[in-house]
């Protein structure tokens, strides 16, 4: 049974154009072309590109339409209307350098005088659903719309990580020229040197080129040819008057910094450049000053002004000492393990990069920048277990160390993912937050940044990016090159945004709101028409235990199920089991639990137990559990032992203090609990993390693909670790059965029926194997999605409204 919705993607694409969702329309028309390109789909794609402000892409799409249908009137008319794009003339509101690094804060020059500028910023990525950042999929008109929403949020600045496409700078200039107030922190991304030598001739040439290209782009004086993984085009809009600073580099890795310092004998020394200096620093600190000095020197020589400059640091390399954090090697040795100390492990407190040593000689100056999240590294909790607010206390210590040098927190935030992947003492975990909690915690952190006397903060991030992967789930999102094609609600890295990028268009496929119309086009897995249940108890509630129908559907992020009963669901009278086979009929567990005395006609990898709000969960076959089989090949095996277990993930490993006197326990979170609620924003039970909902006779479930060990739904790959090295297996779909039983009132066990099994009812009737259907779905390469502002956007806006600039 193919779970293929009867979707006319071309018609849906034109609907998106009518709604003004042109960025989303690009993916929809691309999806239409997966089953065979048509002139109409390319015309729609051309219109989308045209309205997004990308004439070259629009012209290409219309030309492709004419390749297929030379007489297509729309394509011919639009080709003529667009014409051949000319290189735009350079425009500028007047080059300007309006910022400098003052004492404690950046300063902005307005009306002829300098004043404090408190940064209320946000980070902006590139990875729209279906794309890696290096594909630069975001177009000018999308940026224009986003900048307006950022202004309404109350941010006064945004940070990008690398040179963007020309449309970004055009949109930013337009926004500010039309009354907006959004200042740019231009990032300059630098990969680590392949040979580990930051002073190597090839690496310096690369770093200097990246710097020049960034400065030229900001100043509207660059032309780049098409290059893999890099932006291209003509840069003619000078946004230097709205540029606050340049941010050089990335989070430097401790092993790379340690090796570089060691290469040069850890010899301390000074550097005196034209604009920046270091009096007594380690080799990496000297190099950082040199590379930032190069930027200001180039900017001054070429454009006769300078902007403030910084480079990224993070707690792993901070200049503070953390007594709770022993090295990876020391921790294992003290626990009796033998480790290879010749291999550099990314320890969190063995190397230092101290930006406080970098000072200004002239020009706009230097400031310190850190990425600081409340949950990582572990010492952000363990060093501060006895203080009221660990996050604020850490920031205060940073502030004291840097004296009057401005300190900016350029990344902070929590994600709205289903799972937590790192523990924090006050519940500010790495994930596991609904949209409301996300907004509140983000606000608490921004207030802590202000209260600690720092120069401002930049929230991470503006929108959800599907291509990202977290260390807990990274081994199970395979193949990695297809990660942008699907949404993993389990993975915290994918849900930091205040703007959701959510599967389905034009809205959610299933809202968990009891809307039968959402199941009209679903695939019917099981149905029983007018039949009696397997067993009647005669207590007046047999109808709640009588199963009528089991349906399924899906989107790019979730597998949905709808179980229907003959009479309204009543958990005091009935519990329900839904078994899933995701890997093939012979793989999995057949014995059902809870004293049902029943066996499934096919192997089951997962079992959903619905027992009411707060008591429902999803279990996994013992042999298919990632946590219990760590280090072993994880794959389902035939079993009839009834070993069903809760799914868990370890978020923090045990730590030992530097002096070896204190142990900090590991942390484990359960993934099995099913959260009751609705995805309808108008519902009083709205919960962005809701897994299931009941309305009358309908039980609806939303199951993330990643929760079901599906490593890539877009190519139907499931986790199946072979002993010979393979990690995935192509599934032919998902089969499902459903059962009900009357709870005994003692625990979760079934009340005896006196029959062969203690089931009240089942789908298929009698659990016959010949009646089990398998849900299949079409593969895809271009995901459908829609965007909306999360509730966290509005809560965070309220916090910014209370903060003066």
From TrEMBL:
Residue stretches of each TPR repeat: 39-72
Stored InterPro entries: GH, TPR-like_helical_dom_sf, TPR_rpt
Domain of life: Bacteria
Alphabetic keyword roster: TPR repeat
Name assigned to this protein: Tetratricopeptide repeat protein
């Amino acid at each position: 049974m193919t779970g293929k919705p009867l979707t006319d993607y071309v018609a849906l694409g034109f609907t998106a154009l009518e709604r003004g969702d042109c960025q989303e329309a690009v993916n929809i028309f691309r999806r239409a072309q997966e089953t065979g390109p048509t002139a109409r789909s390319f015309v729609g794609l051309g219109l989308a590109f045209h309205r997004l402000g990308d004439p070259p892409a629009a012209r290409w799409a219309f030309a492709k339409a004419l390749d297929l249908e030379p007489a297509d009137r729309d394509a011919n008319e639009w080709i003529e209307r667009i014409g051949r794009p000319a290189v735009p003339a350079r425009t500028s509101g007047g080059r300007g350098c309006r910022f400098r690094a003052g004492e404690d804060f950046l300063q902005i020059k307005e009306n002829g005088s300098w004043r404090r500028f408190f940064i209320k910023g946000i980070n902006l990525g590139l990875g729209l659903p279906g794309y890696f950042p290096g594909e630069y999929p975001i177009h000018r008109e999308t940026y224009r719309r986003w900048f307006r929403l950022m202004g309404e949020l109350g941010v006064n600045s945004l940070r990008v990580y690398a040179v963007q496409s020309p449309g970004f700078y055009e949109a930013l200039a337009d926004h500010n020229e039309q009354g907006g107030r959004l200042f740019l922190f231009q990032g300059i991304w630098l990969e680590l040197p392949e040979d580990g030598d930051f002073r190597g001739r090839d690496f310096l040439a690369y770093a200097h080129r990246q710097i020049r290209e960034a400065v030229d782009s900001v100043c509207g004086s660059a032309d780049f040819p098409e290059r893999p993984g890099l932006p291209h085009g003509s840069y003619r809009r000078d946004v230097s008057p709205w540029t606050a600073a340049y941010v050089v580099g990335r989070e430097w890795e401790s092993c790379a910094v340690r090796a570089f310092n060691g290469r040069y004998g850890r010899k301390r020394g000074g550097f005196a450049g034209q604009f920046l200096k270091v009096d007594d620093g380690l080799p990496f600190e000297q190099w950082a000053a040199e590379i930032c000095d190069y930027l200001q020197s180039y900017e001054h020589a070429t454009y006769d002004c300078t902007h403030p400059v910084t480079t990224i640091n993070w707690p792993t390399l901070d200049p503070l000492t953390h007594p709770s954090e022993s090295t990876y090697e020391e921790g294992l040795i003290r626990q009796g393990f033998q480790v290879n100390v010749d291999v550099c492990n990314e320890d969190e407190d063995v190397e230092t990069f101290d930006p406080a040593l970098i000072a200004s000689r002239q020009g706009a100056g230097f400031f310190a920048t850190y990425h600081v999240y409340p949950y990582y590294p572990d010492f952000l909790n363990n060093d501060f277990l006895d203080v009221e607010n660990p996050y604020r206390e850490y920031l205060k210590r940073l502030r004291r160390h840097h004296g009057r040098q401005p300190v900016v927190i350029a990344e902070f935030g929590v994600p709205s993912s289903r799972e937590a992947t790192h523990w924090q003492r006050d519940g500010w975990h790495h994930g596991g937050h609904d949209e409301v909690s996300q907004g509140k915690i983000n606000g608490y952190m921004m207030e802590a940044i202000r209260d600690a006397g720092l120069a401002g903060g930049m929230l991470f991030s503006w929108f959800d990016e599907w291509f990202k992967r977290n260390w807990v789930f990274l081994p199970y999102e395979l193949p990695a090159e297809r990660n942008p094609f699907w949404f993993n609600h389990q993975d915290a890295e994918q849900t930091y945004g205040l703007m959701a990028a959510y599967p389905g268009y034009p809205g959610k496929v299933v809202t968990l709101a009891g809307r039968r119309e959402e199941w009209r086009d679903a695939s019917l897995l099981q149905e029983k028409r007018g039949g009696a249940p397997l067993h009647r108890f005669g207590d007046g509630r047999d109808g709640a235990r009588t199963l009528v129908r089991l349906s399924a559907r899906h989107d790019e992020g979730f597998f949905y199920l709808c179980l229907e009963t003959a009479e309204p669901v009543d958990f005091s009278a009935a519990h329900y089991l839904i078994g899933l086979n995701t890997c093939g009929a012979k793989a999995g567990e057949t014995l059902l639990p809870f004293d049902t005395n029943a066996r499934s006609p096919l192997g089951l990898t997962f079992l959903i137990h619905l027992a009411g709000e707060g008591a429902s969960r999803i279990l996994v076959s013992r042999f298919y559990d990632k946590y219990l089989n760590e280090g072993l090949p994880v794959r389902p095996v035939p079993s009839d032992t009834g070993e069903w277990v809760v799914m868990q993930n370890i978020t923090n490993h045990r730590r030992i203090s530097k002096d070896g006197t204190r142990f900090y326990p590991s942390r484990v979170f359960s993934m099995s609990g099913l959260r009751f609620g609705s995805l309808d924003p108008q519902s009083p039970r709205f919960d962005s993390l809701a897994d299931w909902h009941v309305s009358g006779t309908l039980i609806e479930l939303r199951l993330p693909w990643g929760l079901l060990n599906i490593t890539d739904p877009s190519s139907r790959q499931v986790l199946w670790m072979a002993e010979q090295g393979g990690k995935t297996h192509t599934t032919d779909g998902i089969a499902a059965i459903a059962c009900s039983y009357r709870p005994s009132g003692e625990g979760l066990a079934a009340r005896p029926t006196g029959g062969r099994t203690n089931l009240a009812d089942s789908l298929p009737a009698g659990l016959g194997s010949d009646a089990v259907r398998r849900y299949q779905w079409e593969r895809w390469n271009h995901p459908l999605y829609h965007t909306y502002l999360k509730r966290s956007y509005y809560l965070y806006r309220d916090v910014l409204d209370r903060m003066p600039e």
